[in-house]
Design brief:
The protein is an alpha+beta fold and about 425 residues long. The protein has 15 helices and 13 strands. It has helices spanning about 25-35, 60, 70-80, 90-105, 125-130, 130-145, 160-170, 185, 200-210, 215-220, 220-240, 275-295, 325-340, 370-390, 400; strands at about 15-20, 40-45, 55, 85, 110-115, 115-120, 150-155, 175, 255-270, 300-305, 310-325, 345-355, 410-414. The protein is globular and about 75 Å long. The termini are far apart. Bound molecules: thymidine-5'-triphosphate and magnesium ion (MG).
Length: about 425
């Protein structure tokens, strides 16, 4: 005899998951640093001439219909009086690190999703810190105080999916809690586009079947959905529409190092140091770009060379001051190459450079000279990153890379 399958219970014991998402992040940081922007429509990423793509817009600009990923030309039409800013990625990374550090004060189970949002599993923190809503209020308050005024929106629920939907419902400065057991009714009135994985195409198909709200989806059986959408997506729709999501919060393991290497298209004799250093610069450029994007600094550098007889030499060196900019990486790597690797009589086949002992804290002690040079180089790097964000990776190269085409065959991150 078979009894009807009971509704699948949420995981036991119930978990308390928070999804925290900063409001209009890049734009909010710009307003924070320049209060005269408050109340004006601020658009990040595009130019007033209509070049590029919008990264984000503040809530004033959103009223005019401007949003992320919109071509700037369209944003200019919708909001001609908008303040268009290029964006300062180094600064956003700095604020992001500050915010992520606050998350870690509440629980070690922090899973960052992007520069301004993360899942936190606070189940184990409740005994010590209080109910999830209290923890959420504390987080919002600390973020505001320690950043000097930024707001975040928080969703609280028994799983990741519901927490993420919840954090988005009352933006900006929102706090939405979905008590365990109320997931299904919380989702019912929302449109199906809220369901993770439902893009414009599947939304169209769902709409054509008369499914507009999650409630309509909840009325379909699992078998019906599987028959229409296939096993995987059908089950996915069935489960998520009922608010069932077993995924754990997976704290990102700290990466210990980032490196780039390239196999050269032709062997370069060790004596041709200018050519070798040009290859090194292009590797450092790639490394600088990646490390900049991840918002980390390296406390050690390593060099790797392989020659025609497959003999590999590696040299590592710890650094007094952590580094993260292309120019700094290049200067340090070149010094190690010049002083610690003997290339005489060898023909280079492979060259690699890496940064190790990574730290995420951007507050680094420097002497005055270093700080000044760092500031200048950071400006250069930020401009390069902005142009690359806008026009692609190869839109801009440093002058010394353009002199002569170096012969790398491929360059691979590792
Ligand atoms: P989001 O959190 O998606 O957006 P947001 O913080 O600007 O606004 P919201 O209040 O809706 O959360 O993204 C965080 C930052 O990431 C955003 O400020 C800019 C950047 N970003 C892009 O550069 N391109 C994009 O397409 C998106 C979506 C975001
Ligand atoms: Mg955000």
């Amino acid at each position: 005899m078979s009894s009807p399958k009971p509704e699948e219970p949420q995981t036991h014991p119930p978990r308390s998951i928070l999804h925290v998402d900063m409001d209009a992040f890049f734009a909010a940081v710009e307003e924070l640093d320049n209060p005269s922007l408050k109340g004006k429509p601020v658009i990040i990423g595009g130019t007033p001439e209509g070049h590029g793509v919008v990264s984000t817009a503040n809530y004033v600009a959103r009223k005019f219909g401007v949003h992320s990923a919109m071509p700037a030309a369209q944003a200019v039409k919708l909001c001609p009086h908008g303040v268009f800013l290029r964006g300062r990625h180094g600064r956003y990374g700095e604020v992001s690190r500050k915010v992520m550090a606050i998350f870690h004060e509440v629980t070690p189970l922090v899973e960052p999703l992007s520069i301004d949002e993360a899942f936190l599993d606070v189940t184990g923190s409740i005994r010590l810190l209080g109910e999830p809503t209290e923890i959420a209020r504390w987080l919002k308050n600390e973020i505001k105080t320690r950043t000097g005024g930024l707001t975040a929106s928080v969703g609280i629920a028994s799983n990741k999916f519901i927490a993420k939907v919840a954090s988005d419902l009352d933006k900006p400065d929102g706090l939405v809690c979905v008590p365990p057991g109320e997931e299904k009714q919380f989702l019912a009135p929302l449109t199906v586009k809220r369901i993770w994985g439902v893009g414009p195409k599947s939304r169209e198909t769902l709409n054509s079947l008369g499914i507009h709200r999650v409630k309509d989806l909840q009325e379909r059986s699992e078998a019906t959905l599987v028959a229409r959408f296939g096993q995987e997506f059908g089950v996915h729709l069935y489960r998520l529409s009922r608010g069932l999501d077993k995924r754990d919060v997976v704290p990102t393991r700290k990466r210990k190092s980032i490196s780039c290497e390239t196999t050269l298209g032709e062997f370069i004799p060790g004596e041709r140091s200018e050519d070798i250093e040009r290859v090194l610069l292009s590797l450092c450029e790639e490394l600088g770009h990646r490390i900049h994007q991840e918002g980390v600094w390296g406390q050690s550098i390593s060099l790797k060379v392989r020659d025609q007889s497959f003999h590999t030499t590696t040299r590592s060196q710890s650094l007094e001051t952590p580094i993260h900019l292309t120019q700094e990486i290049y200067r340090t790597a070149r010094k190690v190459l010049r002083e610690r690797i003997d290339l005489r009589g060898r023909k280079l086949r492979l060259l690699g450079v890496g940064l190790g002992h990574l730290i995420t804290d951007g507050v680094v002690q420097m002497d005055l000279f270093e700080a000044e040079r760092h500031q200048k180089e950071e400006k250069v790097q930020n401009s390069i990153e902005t142009i690359r964000d806008r026009m692609g990776r190869f839109a801009i190269q440093r002058g010394n890379l353009l002199k002569k085409k170096s012969p790398p065959e491929n360059s691979s991150p590792s």
